[in-house]
Amino acid sequence: MAFQTDEHGNITLIQGDSGILIVSGISPDKNYTVYFAVQDRNRKPIGSELFINSNKSTEVAFYLTGDFTDLLKVEKNESFANYYYGIKVCDADTGFEDTLVTDTGEIGDLNTITVYPKKVEGI
Description:
By secondary structure, this protein is mainly β.
């Protein structure tokens, strides 16, 4: 298991590992575009926003590659680093946009990604 996600939607991973992030609770009434973005503690975007079409499904899966999570750096003097992520559901036809919060979350809560340093380089 490359990623661990708790009941509040917070993710824990090892830098450079790949994994799948499932986003559920999407309305199946339309083909929405779902976006995923990561920021550092200064709200600076990390990498490019990822997006996927829902195809009228109630859930989508974002595959985060090792190259993508490798952008989440852990300083040599730190045991881990915290990043923040957001997910937005959009309908280009109507201009509808909705930033998602977890079932237990509220607007303004931060969704964290706790990143631990690499243990081995691999491929």
